[in-house]
Amino acid sequence: MHLSKISGLTALALVSTIAFGCGDDEGGGALSKTEFEKQGNEICKKFETESKKLGNPQSIEELPEYADKALALFDKQLGELRELEPPKEYKSDFDKLLKTGDEAKGFIRDLKEAAESKDEKKIAAVGKEAESRDQTSDELAQKVGLTECGQD
To answer: Could you tell me the CATH number of the domain that includes residue 84?
Structure first.
């Protein structure tokens, strides 16, 4: 498999769909739209910076380790976003983002498994599925003001 295809798939499955979370019922209540957007976008910017430090795998053999690191980083970001309490008008779409985030974690795991078995067809299939979900997640991120999260 070509390096550019591996890099594209990992970026797609591991970075593009990442930046989702859900408010919980603990804490001091919902944030204002402005504060929610500010805090959420700060989390996404920090994630983007940290994810760039991972670089891109140079071979299919490097994908499993890369996927592990990306998944740990992704879990951290989702955890931080989950601590935010979205304003009422964002709650439904923010909950949908959580679902796409959980799906993205599945893509990362599937990508790792495919790389471990050197199954290039499965890697391509996971990338294709992740690409189709990426558009939905970007749209949801934009709807809730998380412009830094809804970028490719």
So the answer is: 1.20.120
